[in-house]
Every structure is written in C-alpha cells, then in structure tokens.
Amino acid sequence: MKFQNRNLGPANYESPLQLSTVRGDNIFNFVDDSERLIFDLSRENYDHCLKTGEEPLCLEKSGPRQKLFFDPKNTTAAVVTCGGLCPGINNVIRGIVMALHYFYGIKKTIGVPYGYEGLNPEMGHGFVELTPDKVKDIHQFGGTFLGSSRGGQSVATMVDTLIANEVDILFAIGGDGTLKGVDAIGEEIEKRGAKISVVGVPKTIDNDIDLIDKSFGFETSFDVASPILRDAHNEASGAYNGISIIKLMGRDSGFIAASAALAMPTVNFVLIPEMAFKLEGPHGFFEALEKRLESKKHAVIVVAEGAGQQLFEGTDVVKDASGNIKHQDIGVYLKKRISEHFTHIPITIKYIDPSYIIRSAPANSSDSVYCSRLAYHAVHGAMAGKTRFVVSKVNNRFVYIPITEVTKKRKKIDLESEFWFSVLQSTGQPFFLG
Amino acid sequence: MKFQNRNLGPANYESPLQLSTVRGDNIFNFVDDSERLIFDLSRENYDHCLKTGEEPLCLEKSGPRQKLFFDPKNTTAAVVTCGGLCPGINNVIRGIVMALHYFYGIKKTIGVPYGYEGLNPEMGHGFVELTPDKVKDIHQFGGTFLGSSRGGQSVATMVDTLIANEVDILFAIGGDGTLKGVDAIGEEIEKRGAKISVVGVPKTIDNDIDLIDKSFGFETSFDVASPILRDAHNEASGAYNGISIIKLMGRDSGFIAASAALAMPTVNFVLIPEMAFKLEGPHGFFEALEKRLESKKHAVIVVAEGAGQQLFEGTDVVKDASGNIKHQDIGVYLKKRISEHFTHIPITIKYIDPSYIIRSAPANSSDSVYCSRLAYHAVHGAMAGKTRFVVSKVNNRFVYIPITEVTKKRKKIDLESEFWFSVLQSTGQPFFLG
Amino acid sequence: MKFQNRNLGPANYESPLQLSTVRGDNIFNFVDDSERLIFDLSRENYDHCLKTGEEPLCLEKSGPRQKLFFDPKNTTAAVVTCGGLCPGINNVIRGIVMALHYFYGIKKTIGVPYGYEGLNPEMGHGFVELTPDKVKDIHQFGGTFLGSSRGGQSVATMVDTLIANEVDILFAIGGDGTLKGVDAIGEEIEKRGAKISVVGVPKTIDNDIDLIDKSFGFETSFDVASPILRDAHNEASGAYNGISIIKLMGRDSGFIAASAALAMPTVNFVLIPEMAFKLEGPHGFFEALEKRLESKKHAVIVVAEGAGQQLFEGTDVVKDASGNIKHQDIGVYLKKRISEHFTHIPITIKYIDPSYIIRSAPANSSDSVYCSRLAYHAVHGAMAGKTRFVVSKVNNRFVYIPITEVTKKRKKIDLESEFWFSVLQSTGQPFFLG
Amino acid sequence: MKFQNRNLGPANYESPLQLSTVRGDNIFNFVDDSERLIFDLSRENYDHCLKTGEEPLCLEKSGPRQKLFFDPKNTTAAVVTCGGLCPGINNVIRGIVMALHYFYGIKKTIGVPYGYEGLNPEMGHGFVELTPDKVKDIHQFGGTFLGSSRGGQSVATMVDTLIANEVDILFAIGGDGTLKGVDAIGEEIEKRGAKISVVGVPKTIDNDIDLIDKSFGFETSFDVASPILRDAHNEASGAYNGISIIKLMGRDSGFIAASAALAMPTVNFVLIPEMAFKLEGPHGFFEALEKRLESKKHAVIVVAEGAGQQLFEGTDVVKDASGNIKHQDIGVYLKKRISEHFTHIPITIKYIDPSYIIRSAPANSSDSVYCSRLAYHAVHGAMAGKTRFVVSKVNNRFVYIPITEVTKKRKKIDLESEFWFSVLQSTGQPFFLG
C-alpha cells in the first residue's frame, strides 16, 4: 500500500487518554491505524479509479491510538529545531512538551540546543530539560527557544547521542534538509535495531513542502508582510513615478509573495521563481511597468528572492565553498536594472527587504492553532510507535505521511492554478509575464 | 444530480477573459460546468460507494466560464450587505466591484444602502454607484461601506426594485437569514420569468453555515480575540483567585470561543452552546473551577454567547416582540452564579464582552485573501448565469453550492471531533463538562 | 523651602556608579540634591516673583547621587504593586530590579505578592525573590507579575513585616490610595526611628495624579482605545442613524476619553466628569446628537466612566458597604436614555466597554521608555536615602516630589485649557455641553 | 526681544471662533500675542537672571488670536509636503484642512503635489483642491497624500506661483531644508511687499530640529522599530553567538536608535553619530561585543545610520554630484568588520534595515494627538498674520518660534544627559564607547 507509515513494532501499552471507541457518547474516539483519507478529490479521479479498479491514493488519519508502543512512565523524548527561523516554532515546542507531560505523563523531555549541532557532543552545547513551566510562555515569542543551526552532522554520531541519552522519541522541527536528515537518522536507528521513533514537523516559511496544504508559519509570514506592503505603497505613491520593490522570501516557490500580494491589493506586480519573465522588449517587465507608471504614477513590485534567476544566465556564475551556485540578489538587481532602464522619465525607487523581520515574528492566531494541533498529532503518532513520518494537514485534515513522500520534490505555484489566477486578478499584471 | 446549481439559461456570450482551455500553456483554464469535487473524502465512504454503486456527493467547482449568460457591456449589478458586522465585508464588496469592472467591464454596479431596507424604496435610502475609485481603499476598514440592517423586506417589493432599476445580478452578503432571503428573491424572479441572477456570499462571524470549511471573517474574529484573552489572563493572575470571564460570539455554535482558546493557550475553560454542562454538583463546572483555583490561584473562562441555555430552563421565559425566546446573558449570569457560589474562598471576577470590538475590526491577511477570492468566484458564477447559489470553500477548494443546501441547518462543533478534542487538550478542561 | 523631600539621614557611602562631576567629559554627572527646576514657566509668574521677591515653586531634580545612604551590599529592597491594573507595571518592576541589581549590586530584592495584602503575614501569600532572570521578559506582558489587591492593611502590621524581613527600601507602585498608604508607612517608620526608605511610583491609568505631566500607562491606554474607537465608528456608520457609545476609564478626570478622541478623530462627542452637561432641552446633549444624526446619519460618543454624575442627582443614592456613594453606570444609562428619547426617528445603539481590555494591555513603546526611566530614578533616590517621595515627570523633566504634595487633590481637565479646546476642535462638539 | 515672530501687519478681522477673554466661564480664552513662556526652567538660570537683570529667553505661546489678519471668506491657503516620509504627515494635512474649513470657514485650500516641485509650473503637476471629504480618512494611512520630493526650486518661481494663484497662506511640512526654503520664500514675499503668511511644521523623523521637545512622527518611529528589535533578539538568540545588527534612521542624531533601545530592553548596544567609538583595541567595540558573546552567546546591536563616520576617515572619500560627502553604510560596514574580526569564534550575523518600513507607517495615537494639535496651532497663527514661524512644543507647551531660530543647528543627543545615561543603564553598554 502506498504511503504506508513505518511502525517500531507492536503497540502493547494502554493509552492513558480517557477516550472512547464508540460514536455518540460525546467523547472523542481513538483513531484506528486503518483510517484513511482520499488524496485526490476530483470527480475525474474517482471515475478513473472506478473504471480501472486502481486504488486511489490514501493518507493515514492522524490522532491518538488506543495502544501505545512506548510505556509513558519510562519514555524520554527529545526536541530539536533546525534551519532558519519561522513563526510558530516555539508554539510547536510548547505543544509537544505539554502533550508529552499532561496527556501521556512521560518521564522526561530533553531540549536539544542549536539544531543538529546539539546532537554532536563535540560542539559542547549540552542539553536543557523542557518542563511545562519553562515553556508555558514561549508561544508569545518568535524565534526558537532552543536555538537552531544550519547543515547536518554525522548521522552515526547523532544516533550515538540519542542512544547514549536513552532517547525514545526525537521530534525534529525543520525544512526539507532537516526532514531528510531525521529520516536518515531513522534509517540508521533501524539498521542498528534500536527502537527510537523519529518524527518530522515540516517547517518551511516558503510553504514549499510537497503534498501538504500549508506549513506552519506561512500564514503569519504574509500577515506580517501585509502592512509592510501597505506602507510600501505609501513610499511609491509619495513620489512622482515612485516605485517600491519589496523582496519577500521564496527560494524556489513564490507562495509568500503571491499570498502577501493577494492580502494587500495595493501590489501591482508579483514576480516569482515559477515565472520565466524577461525584462526588456515586448511582453517584458519594463514595458508593463512603464504602462503602469504612465497611468498611475507609481508602482508596487513584490519579488520573491528566488525569482528571475533566468535573468542571470550568461553572467558569471558565482559558487560558494560547497560548489553551490550562489543566487544573485534579485531585489538589488531589479532596482539597478530599473534605474538604468528608466532614464527617459524621472523615477524614484525604494527597495525593502523585510525577510528577517518576517521570519522572527511570533505566530499569529491561525498559526498558533495550527502549531498546537500539529504538535499534539506528532506526539500521538510517536507514542504509538510510528516513525519516519511527518505530521501535516492535507485537504484540511490532519494526516501522517512517510517523510520520504514529502521530500521527493518541492511544492511550487502552478501557473495554471486558480490560486495564481487570483493573484493576476488582484494585481492586474499581465499573463504574458508568466 | 444532487447539489445541482440553477442557471438562468444558455450562456451565449464569449467571456472577455483571455484564458485558456488547454493544460501546459501557463495560462489558467476556463472551468467547465461539469467539473466536480468529492465532498466526503474518507476511504470508508469511497468503499461504500464502490460497493453500493451509490453516487458520491459532489460539489460544482467554481471559476470563470468560457461562455457568459450576461452581455458585460449591458450588465448592471447590485451589491447588498445585511445583518451584523463581520470582518471582511468591505473586502468582498471591493473584490466584486473590481472584478465586475476590470475583468468583465460591466456597465454599472449599484450599492444598495442599509441591507434589504435599501431595496425598499419607501425607506428612502437611495442608491450609491460603486466605482473602483470609490472602493479602492475600503478593504482597510472594518464594517460595511454600504451600511446594513437586520430583518427582511417584502420579497415582491425587492424584486420590483431590482426590475425597475434593471439590475441583472444581485450579490447579497449575509448570514443564514440573508441567504434564505436572497433565495426567496431568486424564486420570485423565476416566477416572474425575469432573468436576474442572485448570489449569496455567506457571512457569519459564528462560522455556523453548514457544509462549508469556514466563513470569511472567522479567522479575523479569533485573531482579534486572541490578545484580549492573553490580557484577560493578566487580569486573572493579577488578583488572588482572580477569574476572568470573556464572552465571545457564538449563538448556536462555539467555533470562535473554541478557536480563540486554542490560539491563546492561557484559557482554562471553554463553554459552548454544544455542551450540556451543569454548574453544581459532581462533574459540574464549579467543581472543576475550584480545583483549578486551588492549584493555580487564577482561571480564564471563555464562554460563547449561546452557551448554557440549559441552565435557564425552569426560569421565567422572556419573549421579545416577535415571540422569540430571548436568550439570557450567559456571561453576566455566570459571573453572578460564580460570585454566589464561591463564598468560602475570596475571589475576584472580571467580566469582558468584546463582541462589538471583534466584529467591527478590519479583515486580517488570511481573510483578506479569502474575501478577494470569494468575490472573484461569485462574479464568475453570476456572469455565467448561475443563480440562487453561494460561493464557498469546501475541503480547501472553491465551489458553488445551491443556497438551499447550506441553509437547511446550522454547522455546529461535533463534541466527538478532533477539533474539540484539541480544545480539551489545550485547555486541560475535563471531558465531563461536555 | 516648599516641596522639600525627606532624607533618612546623611549619605555616607560612595555610589558604585562610575559617573562624573564635571561637564565636558561625555560622562553623565551625579545630580546634586540642590538642583531645582522651576514649576511654573509662564513669563507672568516670573515677573510676579521678580516684583514681589516671592520664591518661585521649585522641584527637586532626580537622578543618581554621589553619596548613598544605603550600603548596597547590605541592602534589601521590596516591591509591591497595588490597586487596578495599568499598562507598564511590569516594566517598572523590571526596571527597579535591574537597576538595583546591575547598577548598585544590592543584596536582595523581594517581591511582595498581591499588593498590601502581601505585607500582612496573616494572608499567607509569602514572598518571591526577584532576580534579573525572573523579570527579564515580563515587560512584554500586561498586568502585574506580583499580583495586586485593593484596599489597605494595618500600617503597623506592614511596618512590622518590613522590619522583620530587614527591608531597607519599599517601592510601592500604585495610585492615590497606595501613595497615601506608603506615606503612612513612611510616617510610622519615622515614628519608630527605623531607617527604611519608602518610594511611590504613581500608577493611575486615569492620569489624575496632581502636578505631574502624565502617569505611566496613560499613553498606552488611549493607544489601545484608539482602534476600538476607529472600529466603533464602523458600528455606527454601518447602521442608519447608528450610534456607538464607548465607555472609557476616568472616574474623576476625563483624560483617557479626551485623548483617545483626539487620537481617533472619528469621535463626535466626548463626555467627561469635568463637564456639567444636561441631556434634555436647549443646549442639551440630545439636541446636539440629533443635529449630528440629521446631517451625518451616525454618531460616535465617548463617555468617561465618571461623567454625568449630575444626571443622577435626585435619584436614589446607592451606597456600598463602606458608605461610599456607588456611581451609576453612565454608559448603560446613556444608552437607555437615548433609546427612550429617540422614538421619533429610527436609531441603532451599540454600547462598548473596553476597560479591562485597555488596562491589562502591555505598555506601548512610549510608556516602556517612560517606565524604565521612572524605575531608574526611583532607585537612585531611594539609594540616596530619600523617603516618602514620588518620582515623576514635570515639564518634561524627571523630579522627586514629596508624596503629600501630589495626593492633596486629583488632577482634572481644565475646561478652559488648550487641551480641552483641541478636543472640541477635533470632535466639533459644541462648547455649551461643557 | 529675542525670538520675536514676524507679523504681516495689523490684525483687523474678528475671529469667527466663539471663544472667551475671561477666566472662569469654562470657555477657552483667546491667546494674546504678549503671552510668553520661559525656555530654561533650571533654578540656576532663574537666579542668574535675577542677579544680572538679564532677560530670560522666552517663547511665544501659540493659539487662536481674537483678531485675524486674513478675512476668512476671502482667504486661500496652500499645503505642501517636502522631503522624506515620516509618520503623521497626513494627520497634519488633515488637521490643517479641517481647521481652515470648520474653524475659520476659509474660501479654499489648495494641495501642492510632490513638494516644492509642485510650486514650479514647469513640472506640470497641477494642484488638487483639499476638502474635508477628501482628507477625512487620510490620517489612517502613512505617507503623504500630496506626494513629496526632495530638493529646492527657484524661490522666485515659487513666489510667482503663490501670487499667481492668490494664495494667502502657505503651510510647508518638512525638515531642516524645507524650513529654510519656506523662510526664503517668506523673505522674498516680504521683499515684494506681498502679504502671504508662510508657516513651517517641522517634520524630521530623526527628531533633530533644534530647541523643540520632539518632532511629530518620532514617537511612532520607535514604536514601529520596537517589535522589530524584539524579534531581532529572536534572530540573535536563535543561533550560537548570534548577532543582530539593526540600522535605524539618524543621520546626525541618534534619537530613534536610543529611544527604540530604551523601549525594547533586549538591545545590548546602541551606536549613534554623537559617539566617537572605535572598533579595535582596548575600550573598542569588538572588545565589548566579545565580552557580551562570552557571557550570553548572543547580542543585539542598534546602529544609527550616521554613526561611526569617524571609522571611515582615511578611506577614500566619495562625493556626490553636489560635492557632498557620501556617507558610507555603517550597517553593512559593521557587519563586514565584525565578520572579519571574529574568526576565532563561530558567529552568525543578521543585518536588518527597516528604515522604509518605519517612515511609511501611519502615526500612532500619541503622534496623532500631537499632529492634530500642531495643525490647529499652525492655522491659528497663520490666520492672525504671523509669518516665517514654526509651530512646536517646548517644555510640553505649544509655541510659535521664528524659523531662523530652529534651523541654526541640529539637535543632538547630549552624551552627558540623563537621557543618554538611561540608554546606557538599559543596554548595559560601557561608558567608554562614548
């Protein structure tokens, strides 16, 4: 069966949760491992399956199981947060700690400082014990209470550390790289025959994890960006032929840029990595921009950080120490090119890069709700002995998915989707830029 | 076929939207009337349909149609907003006006002032013309640019007004009563053989419209409530055995109360209309509250306005002029009963009712995005000649649903759902109150 | 000399602060006890003093003294917060703790829980030690970290407690009653020949402490009220002849109501305790309100809680247990009277009471700056052995004033002042209401 | 007499304001030209004047005069906004328009688009008429409703334009350069014997106008910066030896940086133009920073844009077209130098420049109040025929000051002041950096 989550073994302990197994008693029911949700809800796909007898793709419903793999009173969990900041990390940490403590009464929860570095004893970061009292207010703050770091550490070393510290469950909050990392840790654990559950909570402010509805922190990101765009409009309209360029996050996917523009309809152009726009010539960006300036005397441009990489082709490729191509800064580049192009009319350009301001903000209410629920589901799955899975929301329902299924590729904006069309409708920018 | 939307007649005009009909050209495709989405995505239901040959319930996908019923250059639309305030009304008005003007280039859009009253010439409110320039900034403000009113007017009179003013499309933004009203208008139009499309955009801050994922303004409502709950916690913890009671909206359904509590986990108790809790005795609310005060010396209680009506049974029933039972104020009642009960220990109670503050706030970013998209879809459906439908989101997709399907009953919180369970997990309140 | 602050005795210890005594070295100078600032800066008063030889009223400049009365390493301080909540209390607590610890390195700071109750051992509240680590984040939250209570305790008992716990300095954060209380404590200490400094930090959200520019939390109060007024305007304009009544704090003085109305110029009427307005008849409020409704079809009314007490004269006087006259709720009363009066035209009234929401909010930036500086000055004065004084800002400068001078009477809005005139200019309400 | 404001001539028209001339009638009194306020309120200065017979420096009290120079029904006013954005500009515009219209009922108010450019007909910007209806909501938005531009235009041309359009009063909202410009316009008008009043409303987000308490928008600037600093702390503490550098506005004066740091005490270092700090060596910044990292593992640095220019001495001086030295970007420079210095320990640096985000924000409540009152006073002074003055607040009172007095030099932070000392107390940064 596709999308089948792994289990550490038979679940023999009774859950301490006082839940029900029958409908109609006003008490939530334990979720059974067999409960599944259809992924593709188009009637077309239903008919296709009906006709061909093909199994529809299904996802495992998340929630508390009646039988646990781990005996709570002897269970030790650990939490690690990796990669860049994203609103809501502290809410997830808090939710995990509270759920482990109050729902299951587990023995101990360890905080791993500074990302995967914290699982490498050589870094000397030590551990911090996570108690309800320590985490009860952290949801009010952005950032990560545990600290973070980028990049990986030796998988063997990290597994050694987990075993040495008798960790039974590792919750890893992080993006694509982190999830691949924790899956590798899970694989190594399996190889060693150890019984440690590893769980990923997808964190990507870019919202580019495949299959899932949205990642936590994403709603906050464009909520924080939104008044910045409103005021960038003030900068643009405050000068004759004023132009504001706002660079927003989005290395491979333009979800933040597009959603922020939809949320604040003073935006006139959204440029995203998924678009192969050109600057010069007919149907180029300059042409569209000039038309806008002519009619309205100002323009607001939102550009995702990964947009326009096609413009740099042919220029000298700069690589970093690891040999990766270093992306050029599209915001700065755009500002330069626009300045150079518009010599025939007076213009004023303001360039704004609020990335760090956005990613370090506290979660808004919508994300706070989401983070708590993600954390609870992560804990329920882990206690039942599931491993190498992520918890997420698909078609508005919480599910468990094998990590490997969501890390195969990045989620991107489909330029033919209703979502992107709504952005075009809101901004009024021409199709041809796409 | 179930959930089949009505059409005014054959759509013969070409849409002015420059869209595509093929995949792969990076241009959004016109949506075909035949496109459908499965409503129930449980595997169980799939298997049931497979076995029995029963048709699964499907919803019509919304979006721009290639053929229009109305000729844009001769089309006049009208917009009316009814009932209580809700964040996002202005965003919807703005979206409708912009879409009609810029996407379809229709002749004129009329604003109907003060709800259905505005369709009764006797009230003397007149009309206001809605132009892009007039509505371009209104999304930044709460309330309704058009004014609103409660209650209905004679359907015949309203239809007379629409016909007299040569209105082709009526967009009604409102709740359960408004939607029933606009459907009645549509029915009367049909009887008269007129060709006027009537469209409902469901507005209910309580989020209690059946079938749909959420109504616009709902996210904002608990986003605005959330810091109020945070600070109500300050009031509670600022006094010895301090108790804060916050009454939130929710006449029949406790979604705002429950979501706000989830978003701000300093809440200790959530009381909603769906719960049949009692105050006194074992497993009563006072017992749970006292236990909380004993251990923490303060408590934060969120109560939905419609909660606890069972407590008033046996008391004198007060009816209003129309004979409806007047709900007692549960917040004030709770404050009184708690004061009377806790004579054996010193307590301090603060009662907070932020309802008007919440409902008159501007839409947050998430709702802003939602409102724009709802408005666009409403316009696309109307231009295609659909009538007596609502536009909404179900399973995270935009759909058109016959009005009659969503007004059959109210949506309520299922006490056995994962959502309510997450509230119990967050607050720590006992199951037995439910 | 008037306004002379008391000292516990000669200051013999060198301040550990590395400050200067000469100008020009870019290092702040210790402040000398003799430094004074003129209170009345009108030229008229200057000429009067010149002519009559009268001493102008002067205030003592606050700041760090070169010599201390207390030996830091043997000093114990205590902090108590009394009365209702007000934004900024936690900032003041934090500032005091940080200043005592980092600037002076004192031995210990004690937190007294739940106001003056905490100085009565019979209440059994105990003490909490205040360390930098414990208070470092509290400024981000409203309320009081220490808890509060209303009313007094036996002065003798409180002094016993201070002496028994070897407290050298007591910082009391509170309003008029609290300040009188701490002055009484200081008097009792003097009688007993003890050497304990008592310091008041005036806290009154109403801004009604005499002589001083403004009390902390006041700026935040109308900053929080401001968007509520903006949205109350949405409620008013959202209905035909819609009226929003917002009750704001202000028992004896209308500063919050007046400032909030100035900050949000959608307000049409401000009613404050200082005004002797009437409702009926020519030059009455109803007449002015009707005129407003006629021309604009909506009205926003801000009323201070203590306004309109003259309207209740002749009605039955209700007294509380202590024999004090219980104020009637002017907001509810106004709503009732307006409803009863306007039977000849349709109106809709919305009544909003955001008091608890305002007073429990965290301090805004302006107040945060103010609170830190107040706390630092309070600490400098206390360490120098001053006692029975408040720290505050007068004519934009920080000063020390004897408590007795600021508790003689309440500060009120002068109806002939430029400030009130600016309110009339902003609202457009007629003079005659005053 | 020093600080004597100029008048266009005798004021012969009765003010239409229904004010009083006697105390005690609860109606605001007209202000007399002779009313003065002492500038220096130190007792020391008082004694000095007493002894020497020297006149104390006095400022003219602002407010409505009983006699007007201009006949309202024949008066045309114009408003121009120049230079960079600053929160509150729209509030001032709104206040001026409302006061001219509702208080004085003047004939017409002209909006001059895009700063002084708008007074040069060659630019072709035209005029816009300012009515209450047009400006009633603009206070809710940042930016300038009129547009702005930098730099001057020919004074003769601008005076020609004013005369040609029969403008009687010109209100110029702008900084140092704008004020000098409007004074030059006033001088030219005088030379020509024309009777046009020119009024300056000082606008400088840097708060660097001499003599005055604070300029409008300043409070908002650090209010907007404050949560950015809070979250920058999350960035710093989220990485091992994480460093956040936030560049704030302040070309010559560090008021924003210093106040923002005071408002958000998570800041550890504030670097301002007034400080002659060095980076290397003993008592250098690197030494202090390393000490901080050693003890806390993270640091938040706020740097004013004009800080550290002494560090660039000896480097190649870059001049712009006008021959002015172009300031190097201290934020980028600091980031580079810190990276280069700290090779012996791992560090992570985040650089944040929120300048455009801050200056384009709407005014907060405190500034809203201030802007309205400034606008009213500006109008009262102009109608009375005063010219070449600014309106402002000194020692917490509104006054009129000759433009030439406030443009002599910039206001700077006095490193020996209590204000700067409070910043050092809050951050804990060493004196020696100054």
UniProtKB/TrEMBL annotation, chains A, B, C, D:
Pathway recorded for this protein: Carbohydrate degradation; glycolysis; D-glyceraldehyde 3-phosphate and glycerone phosphate from D-glucose: step 3/4
GO BP term (any one): fructose 6-phosphate metabolic process
EC identifiers of the protein: 2.7.1.11
Pfam families, per database record: PFK
Domain of life from the UniProt record: Bacteria
Places the protein is found: Cytoplasm
Catalytic residue list: 206 (proton acceptor)
InterPro entries: ATP_PFK, PFKA, Phosphofructokinase_dom, PKF_sf, PyroP-dep_PFK_TP0108
Residues binding substrate: 204-206, 249-251, 305, 356-359
Site positions for Important for substrate specificity: 177
GO cellular component, one term: cytoplasm
Keywords of the record: ATP-binding, Cytoplasm, Glycolysis, Kinase, Magnesium, Metal-binding, Nucleotide-binding, Transferase
Function, as annotated: Catalyzes the phosphorylation of D-fructose 6-phosphate, the first committing step of glycolysis. Uses inorganic phosphate (PPi) as phosphoryl donor instead of ATP like common ATP-dependent phosphofructokinases (ATP-PFKs), which renders the reaction reversible, and can thus function both in glycolysis and gluconeogenesis. Consistently, PPi-PFK can replace the enzymes of both the forward (ATP-PFK) and reverse (fructose-bisphosphatase (FBPase)) reactions. Catalyzes the phosphorylation of D-fructose 6-phosphate to fructose 1,6-bisphosphate by ATP, the first committing step of glycolysis.
Name listed for the protein in its UniProt record: ATP-dependent 6-phosphofructokinase
